[in-house]
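Q: Hi! First time doing this. I have a protein sequence and I read that you can turn it into a structure. Is that right? Here it is:
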Amino acid sequence: MAYNIPLFNLNFDEREAQAAYDTIKSGWISTGPKNAELEKMFIDMWKVKYAVSMSNCTDALHVCCMVCGFGPGDEVICPSLTFAASCNCIRYVGATPVFADIVGPDHINIDPKDIERKITPKTKGIIVVHMAGFPCQMDEIMEIAKKHNLKVIEDACHGPLSEYKGVKLGTIGDCAAYSFFSNKNISTGEGGMFITNNEEMASKARLIRSHGMSTMSYQRASGHATEYDITCLGYNFRMDDIRAAIAIEQLKKLPKDLETRLAVRARYVERLAGMERVAVPFADNTEFVSNYIFPVVILNSTKEQRDALRDFMHAEGIQTSVHYPAAHKFSTYRELGAVLPQTEYVTENEVTLPMYAALTLEQVDFICDTLECGIKEIYG
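A: Yes, that's right. Below is the predicted 3D structure, encoded as structure tokens:
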């Protein structure tokens, strides 16, 4: 169905179209100068030492696991309240995901206390996911990692330019992954970025990205190299220059887009404060964040009631979603036997409301009014 207020809005205009056209006309559309320019922008904007463009965030997470040295027999702790890529990447390298619970409805990121409870002699790393762009409790997590000699991967796909105590998310752990999927803050349809401050990890990532080749096709085509060696088993995780050109334009827009989202979020928080049965995760946050999505959790609710509430919103022309179905409940992970009470409640009672820079305050008011009416009708 068509919605009067969609869940997200693609922030594209003639600048992205012109960038793609110019790249096509340049005569080089595979990984080349536009990727290099995009990587340099990430290095400058994130204040990180190394950035390696990737074909998507899933591949970037796969590379993170590879450069961290995870493998068969290892365990890696991760949240279940996330998109499946955050745990699938662990299995790609033959390791086993160990699911940890979230803090609760008010803070839907991974719980450091449960991370520590899940550590065994087999544990080699932690993957954190900064939900909606809001930071995990990184001081506590990094202290746990240091204590147990664990690698930390940040799945920062929700949080471009989000900060934790003045530091960009993605630059706190050992390495990080970003997404340029069509509904993300930076969109190229598909695409991603690997970042790190570790030179060895960056070098490995660059090799893995392109079949383990010691030189890239653009280097040879432009006369900077004449041959190549295969130095390790790699993959084709390259991003083409058309998408990189689009990402450059998206990055130019990003700071203004995020500033506008702050006002949208502020109106939501103001309107929902004190609304019966509604918890707003991270309501007390004071960090600068990307506000990728706007999740709320319905309290004293059931999944059936939550689904009815979503249907009520949809009937009024407001698109909603759920972030996310619990990964440990999927068929492929059920055998691990994880029991995560906070995650299980939130995944069955969370509603993601529309969030994007073009959303007007009047639309936010209508969404909140409709949510309140739906709660009264369904919950009494």
